[in-house]
Amino acid sequence: MLEMRPDCERCGTDLPAAQAGAFICSFECTFCALCADALDERCPNCGGELLDRPTRIGAALARHPASTERKFGGE
Questions:
Q1: Domain range annotation of the chain
Q2: Is 52 strand, coil or helix?
Q3: CB 2 within 8 Å of CB 55
Q4: CA torsion, points 36, 39, 43, 48, in degrees to nearest 10?
Q5: pTM
Q6: pLDDT digits (tens, 9 = 90+) for 18-51
Q7: Domain 1-66 falls in which CATH fold?
């Protein structure tokens, strides 16, 4: 199950799990659309492809909430 990280690692923009606009690599590094575009859809951490993150809504989000651990500014 995806961790559904709450923010862009590069700029800190909020990325709610129920809304489109987040991009992830296979390691779940997470970026907003503007940053993914600026990065040419390549993860700066692993070099992997950044793809649209699916949304999680309704009962699924209630049963499996998104992460609250913010990644902006590094780990």
A1: 1-66
A2: strand
A3: no
A4: 100
A5: 0.90
A6: 999 999 999 999 999 999 999 999 999 999 999 9
A7: Herpes Virus-1 (3.30.40)
Question: By the 8 A CB rule, do 67 and 3 touch?
Answer: yes
pLDDT band at 57; cut points 50, 70, 90 = very high
- Token pair of 24 as six digits: 């992830």
The H or E element spanning position 24 is: strand 22-24
Rounded Cα distance between 54 and 17, Å, is 8
CA atoms within 13 A on the CB side of 55: 8
Return d(Cα 19, Cα 39) in angstroms, integer: 21
> What angle is formed at CA 15 by the lines to CA 52 and CA 57, rounded to 5 degrees?
75
